[in-house]
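Note to self: user wants both folds in one dump. Writing first protein now.
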Amino acid sequence: MAGSGTSNQSIHMTRTEAGVGRYFERALPRTFLILLILFVGNSFPLGLRGSEIGEPVILTWNDNSGNEDGFRIERSKDNIEFVEIAVVGENVTTYTDSDSLEVGQMYAYRVRAFNEFGTSGYTNTRTTYYDPPPQYFFGELGTDGGSFAIMCRADGSAVFLGTTESDATTTLIQYFQVGSDGLFQFFVTDFGTFSGQIIDGQIYGSIDTSSGRSGGMSIASSDVLLSGSVAESNGGTASFAGFYDSGIDPESGTRLIVLAGPDGSGFVVSSFGSTISGGKLDLSADVPSLASLDDGTMVSVGFAEMEGILSGTVTRNGETFDFLGQDESTRSKSVFLNASMRTEIEGGGTIIAGFVVSGVGEKRLLIRGVGPSLAGLGVDNPVEDPKLKLYRFGESEALMENDNWVTGNVPSIQEISNSVGAFPLLLDGDDAAIVVSAVPGLYWLHVTNKVTRKGTALVEIYDLDGGNTRSSLVNLSLRGKVMSGTDPIIAGFVIGGNATKGIMVRAMGQELQGLGVSGTLRDPVLKMYGAGGAEGILAENTNWENDADLLREIAFDVGAFEFERGSRSAAKAMWLDAGLYTAVVSDRSTGSGEVLVEFYGIP
């Protein structure tokens, strides 16, 4: 895709804490040690530094050696296997990497000095997610005063907002694809087929209205119906540029969408039930911005002090609504990093776990169905031989499956498990594990107990990208059986990032009957704990209707089906800092039954 609007990404490197002197003693003959003293102490490269987002990747470091011949730069996709990508000369302390970088890929870098006698120790390893900022295009739709806005992400996915002046038709297309040559095409029912191309910061296109609604449109007489240019990337609203989505009134399904450009250009779409209106919005970082839409809706938009947040009011038919919108990129700043759920499985039975990947690009996950290795953690009666299958929603064939993790790439599974802090699996055990790159969508995990004796199994999902992608885990669930007495379902999750994350936890019993599940848990009790339970009970609930209004609103926002009035299911909404949390689900009367435990990230 051609055009301007990108910014540089720089990485600053410092030395690792490993002793450089010890490195040389192991790596080089003793006859070289005296000559290499100049590399020891303050002679290794220091300070590999930089920011987090931009294009291309610029590496900088400090030169603390006096006799190097140059520096070797290495890069890795998995932070395990590094490949040398460049060599620079003496006294050079910067390098720009723009060679075959893949959008959506995490890269790790390290640098070391060298001369004719050998090499120094490495700097520390710095990682960055290669994600150039979006480009924003604003322009005219037809010749009658219509307007549009497009945000094109680095991976080629794009969002379109547009409205016509003559017949007040507004549309929002939240996803279409722009090719590497800048070409795009998408269909809108009320408009027709849009076709166009982005070339050198300009966007051109036309609409085939014959494929749209009956009777065509008043703008059909124009040969070029779509024309605009890329917004300046370093304008006054650059720090707030983004695609914002806000639910104003969940009961009626109303929304406010704002596309904020970096140069103060903006576009707003308001929906109240089936009524949709939109128009241009001139933004300011200092004072609220006002827009009067074609159906009389008044919108006031202001940037909150927190980056990535828009707030304001919408007034329609004399009624005013407050809204709070969040930029799509902000949502991944606090994310699920991993989740685990432990429950008993009857002999020959299967437990089902689900998760949703949301956002843009693939999400690399480590998924484990653990049985035998639980014995070393003090778990009585673990499942002897679990089998793991991964399905994508709507597909009958398993996407991946594993019956015994040691039949796969054992070193890779072990190294990946270690990298995310997962306990090691027994080499002679029959645990199951897979690594998958999951595109956005809904997935189901089936963990089957292959033997006739019941036992305890642990299902684990680990985010291998560490939350540093534009895709994220947004909800997780497990259906299992709470046994009478002391056998609850135990589910845990880890939140990472730099922001407080809203979480809704639900323990659903009665509602499962409507889904064809028999023997459901009659009266679930939900208890939430901090890390290891050391912080005591953070929250507890035995009746979701204690917070019915809030929980119904959140369920609407995240797409969860509603609890039944009068049911005894349990739920709790919390706003949590980064850390490890545990949910324990049991029965209030020590009964047993099937229950669905769910974790939802609150947008």
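First done. Writing the second protein, which came from a different request thread.
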Amino acid sequence: MTRTPSHRLFVVGCLFAVVGLADLAIGQEAAKESAEKAAAPDAPPKIELTLPTTPKPTDKPVHVEEAMPTDPLGELLFSVGVPPSTWTKFTDGSPLSDSERRPLVGVFAAVRQLKPEDWSTYARPMPVPPATLDTAALWRAVGTLKSIAPQEFTDAELDIVYAAAVANSPGDPPRLADGDPRRKFFRCEVAVPGRTGPLIVYTLRVPDALRGKTTVEERIGVQGMYLKGVGAGPDGSPIFAADRLEWFKRTPLGDLGMDYGLYDDVRPFSSDLSAERECLFQLLVAMKKVDFAKLQELTKGAYSVVPLFNDGPKMLGELTAQEGQARRAVLVVADKELQRRYGISQYYEVALFTAESVDNPLLFNLLELPPGFPQGQDINETVRIPGTYLTGWTYKRDRTDAEKREAAKREAAGLPPEKPGMQKAPLLVGKSLVWLKRIVAAQDDGFSWLVNGAVIVLVLVIAAIAWTTLRADRTARDIVQRTNAPPAGTSLNDLPGDFRNGPDFSSLEARDDRK
């Protein structure tokens, strides 16, 4: 039905009436409250007390935020996930229990984040008994590895330690393969001088060459966090958590403190040495300790370059020596952190070409060069260099003439350029080099001096003999002259006949030639 204007006016009027009645009721209520307040006496304000309520029990522990320690090491450990409360979760006097495995996994996650410079700065030598070890501290020790017992991580523990997804659901990152070495950790017993009880070390890694062995007799080093102790005094067994074991193999390099465990991080080929720099500098430190004459003695004989080019990984830690022409010798400056930790500020890179390698160089990183040895990008010196293999160095090489022509053809045809050619060169580490050209020149110079000296002596002897002979002749003549000479002031006319001018024929008989 169609509404008329009169109907609309009626509805609007009803609305205004409702609003007016509501406003009137509110005003009356406010006036009533004002009258009551005015009539009532003044009273103190009402105070309401709220009693604390007892929290209901819950299955989840309430997280209490810990304050960060103020000491540098405490701050470092806190930043990698080890707050002070971690150490309260380990109980002294008994072996590591199942309930302590979870905090152990947390410590594993922390030690993986510590850098070599952190251990160098904060790790202290482990004292001999009866000194006690502090928790929340980093320690280092050297001893003999006696046993290795592998243990398996659960998938949940792997997520904590390596932050690696192990589920194989669609969209998840790839899981760790069943044979992945990160799925295991190891309980090791280490005999430490001065202690009857062994050092118990839980470590994420042991050297690859020792994996699979249960009983060993190897010289090793430990850098780790002290968790708890089993027993006290020299019979007790401190328990440590570590990222890896150092391995000082019983070789000349191992005797010099070279950690063979670092070879596990060396790649077959490298173009930046980012993964190999710790191994490189430990080798340089070992070379710094060795007597160069002894190193030459250890590497006497002839060595082929073929294994260095074709089977480099098997040459890790092996000593060798190569002879040829050094074509380049340049200075390399180490970064400040490596200088601080290793005490090595610089080394030299020498490119060596041998008869076997032809146009393929071998690169040597050396601590020093002989006095006067030339440096630069274009030298040519005969040398012999003892050292040890590290890795295969890859670098961009200059194009050959044929490759340049091919590149020009591709450019003319509008084709994309090919990737630049890469050169592979064995990279070795040594102390110094033997400058053979200088030795030969010195020997030649010595022989020349010897010959020249002999000739000079011979000439002097002959001259002396001639001078002595001539002097004797002059002396005899002078004696004769002094004997026959007339007295001073005598006239030649007054001398006897023997001294007169002209011949004397008085003693000759007359001859008659006319017969």
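Dump finished. Worth passing along: Residues 11 and 17 are 10 Å apart (CA to CA).
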